[in-house]
């Protein structure tokens, strides 16, 4: 057993004169949540479709658990695409059973596990309803259950929180984290950067078909630090002689350390005039990093 569940290496996919993917590589560690990020049209969905064998790369290779990706691996992957589709006239339970059996499950086993997931997601009462009677969020829950029911080795979620209110977003987020605890590897694509910070271990940022940033999420955030410190003190009119600062709100300030100055120097300077209530280095958010990196590589 390898430490990596999936390696996509030097993937190229071209449509006419447009490169959807231009030499993109990612490595997914076993039992991790991997954030696949990028603006609309960057190439994320194309890469996910290649991994799920919906389309093929022009060149490059995909390795699943040490083997070249093959048709037999479809049952080991669960894919929730951004563009969902359920047969509107079919009953929820009937359709869910059908989709589960397409994944190789027996009707008996599928029924048992679907009932488990439907109860867990509070949608069991919709079992005999037609899909067209469901809200978008309810339909999303059903497709989530069908995606994870066969407990694949690799799950691919493309915008899994689309259509959910904050309560149901939290429910699905917690279920994704629970699946990770069970050892399932997850590729997670979303525009919600706060969700990336909450659940992802590593990320790759794709723009215009190219990978422009990747790494462990805390390392990426540390790489984008710029010696900015935020503090709250006992003065609303603090004047520091040796530092350029921005007053944020009443007694809250932000300072970018100049060359040759340390955070200890800043603390000592503040303490000459007032006491310190809080002091911390400002770590950039993933949203700030996303915007800055895409802008610089536009």
Could you characterize what this model shows?
This protein has 298 residues and is of the alpha/beta class. The chain has two domains: 4-215, P-loop containing nucleotide triphosphate hydrolases (Rossmann fold, 3-Layer(aba) Sandwich); 226-282. It is 32% helix and 29% strand. It is built from nine helices and 14 strands. The strands form three sheets. It has a six-stranded mixed beta sheet, with helices on both faces. It has a four-stranded antiparallel beta sheet with strand order 2-1-4-5, covered by helices on one side. A hairpin with a 2-residue loop joins strand 1 and strand 2 (18-29). Helix 2 packs parallel to helix 4 (136-148). The chain is globular and about 75 Å long.
SSE order and pairing:
Layout: E1 4-15, E2 18-29, E3 33-37, H1 44-51, E4 59-64, E5 67-68, E6 77-80, H2 92-102, H3 107-120, H4 136-148, E7 154-158, H5 166-181, E8 185-189, H6 193-199, E9 202-207, E10 210-216, H7 217-223, E11 228-233, E12 245-249, E13 252-256, H8 263-271, E14 276-281, H9 286-296
Parallel strand pairs: 3-8, 3-9, 6-7, 7-8
Antiparallel strand pairs: 1-2, 1-4, 4-5, 9-10, 11-13, 11-14, 12-13
Helix pairs in contact: 2-3, 2-4
